[in-house]
Amino acid sequence: MKPVIVAEKPSQAKAYGDAFKTVKREGYMEVAPNPIFPEGAFITWGIGHLVELKEPKAYDPKWGKWSLASLPILPAEYQFQVARGKSQQFNIIKKLLKGTDTVINACDVDREGSNIFYSIYRQTGVRGKHIKRLWINSLEVDEVREGFRNLRDNKEDLRLYEEARARQISDWLVGMNGSRLYSLLLQERGIHEVFAIGRVQTPTVFLIYQRQKEIEAFKPEPFYEIEGKFKTAKGSYKGKAKLKAKERKKAEELLAAHELTDGKAQSHIKELKTAEKRIPPQPLHSLSSLQAAANRKWKYSPQKVLSAMQKLYEKKLVSYPRTDSRHITSAEFGYLAAQVESYQKLIDTPFPIDSKLPKKRFVDNTKVQEHYAIIPTKSLPTARKIEGLPQDERNLYEEVMRTTLGMFHRDYRYAETKVVTDIKGLEFHTTGRTELDKGWKSLFPAAKEAKQDPPLPELSLHEQVAAAIAIVEGMTTAPKPYTEGQLIAMMKTCGKFAEDVADSEILKEVEGLGTEATRSGIIETIKRHNYIEVKRNIVSVTEKGRLLCQAIEGNLLSSPSMTAKWESYLKKIGKGEGSSEVFLTTIGKFIEKLLQDVPGQLRSNGMPDQMPALQGTAIAICPRCRKGSIVSRKGSYGCTEHASGCKQSFPAVFLKKRLTAKHIEYLCTKGKTPVIKGFVSKNGKKFNASLELEEGKLKMKF
């Protein structure tokens, strides 16, 4: 029998098909017989999540309506269904699986890929098949063929599926119960909004809120230092005494003690030391380090980076992007070292190779588990192909390439000079830096350097110098708001915010909130829920986000530690050391405690019984009444004059396509939108159309 290969998505299936001779069929490809598959094979694909958890109302009609009396939503067992509009592809997979004895899971090589495969496999009802796992880090033809020659056992994959399934159900439980609980309690207080609650997204919003509160509460305070300006025959330099006082009086007293009140004096160089310093090339990129670098350099959002890197992966130009590793194995280093000169030509950056020996900083087999760092593949694209890439993909490809080439470059070298200038026994300290060899930094010519110590003039020990002394006043500065790129680092390192040492250690162990693959999606989710907004790359909490954080303050939902403890146990499930049943029972108890505690917590958090409605950002003047404004509401857009009788509204989702505020603005101001891509008809077919507003109703225009 021909084995059936199940890919996660069509583009991935196509990459597998490129490694063999294939014939395209409806919903699958047929692989011709070859040395790896002597009888041939079938390649089929999902469309992301073909299978999803059923809605609460499918378990019990009372859960179809939002009410406090119907909570908690805790099904005795969890049921799945084929996602709407995806049944045709599901049935194709089901038919193929029934006709084979061997199934190969070729979905993404991570937890979510395992979840997608097994949720489809189990939903088909097919049983007793021999299941193998394809585990590769590149979609290059050679790597794909090698992967199919050396398929893995599925035992580890099954454990990853159990972990991912437990995570999926726990997220569903927290979301379904928490969102209804907070939304309904706040509705009782006059806030008619939906407050989506998430196991990871909610503590993420709270951490951003805490930073914003710190900034708002900050009061700048003056501080005083003593600065010396020194003049020599070869030039001038500055130095500071080791004093940072809150009161000017302290600085004045120190000057008086050294008889330096007139501000001028003769001084001499008491100490002069110069040492050569080296900075080795930066480590290879993980996804999060690449997201941070791209946000810093080009203001790309984390989601944009992940999306562009996925396209480069599917174009076979980079290795698997959803990795948290910054190391490679000796095997990858071997092909990189063999092609280093060709990579140099590719980006027109020649330099003498410093060494082709592997260094532990980059190459360490023991530090590579599921995936290695992001590196270029063996495939060498033509200059024309590079030039033809979209600008974001090209920038990211070159960033990966230059970082990889850094392994073979020289260290950055500079001379650091430390000077102690003595004025009547009061020491002034100065540090200067002189660049000796740019080394690997020459690979990044446009990079902005952090503020560095300036070079010093030529000085000699015991040299007499003229000095002018002054007390200088400075002001303390507030913490800076997060940029979108810094959110990724904040989520990853949030253990440093935990007060409890044990909590801090757990957060370090699980690497903070979310995973390498999910953090950018979480940021997009909290943006979509209107909890945060990003303007000029600066993140701030919205009025709605602030209200959510005030409501959850003091609750475990605001705590990254709670999420970390859950994540720690989920990892045990993935290792076969924990039980999903135990985990989900704990989640159930947590939800029941939420129902008991939250009403009282809202009161103790100072939430009044009646609160003013949130002021939604006005999108446009209402086209019907011309008095009110159209604003975003629960699941829709509506007029602010609704209470006065204006019935104008727009759905937030129309034919499975989310309508953005920009779409609504077009409808209100111009009466129609440009062509919108991605509507889905009743039979599941995707199509494009523009929308028109006729007598307050939406009409399609093809």
From TrEMBL:
InterPro entries to which the protein is assigned, alphabetical: Topo_IA, Topo_IA_2, Topo_IA_AS, Topo_IA_cen, Topo_IA_cen_sub1, Topo_IA_cen_sub2, Topo_IA_cen_sub3, Topo_IA_core_domain
GO biological process terms held by the UniProt record: DNA recombination; DNA repair; DNA topological change
UniProt-listed SUPFAM superfamilies: Prokaryotic type I DNA topoisomerase
Domain of life: Bacteria
SMART domains assigned to the protein according to its UniProt record, in alphabetical order: TOP1Ac, TOP1Bc, TOPRIM
Statement: the UniProt record of this protein carries the keyword DNA-binding: yes
CC per GO annotation: cytoplasmic replication fork
Molecular function GO labels: DNA binding; DNA topoisomerase type I (single strand cut, ATP-independent) activity; metal ion binding
UniProt record similarity statement: Belongs to the type IA topoisomerase family.
Protein's recorded name: DNA topoisomerase
Organism whose genome encodes this protein: Planococcus maitriensis
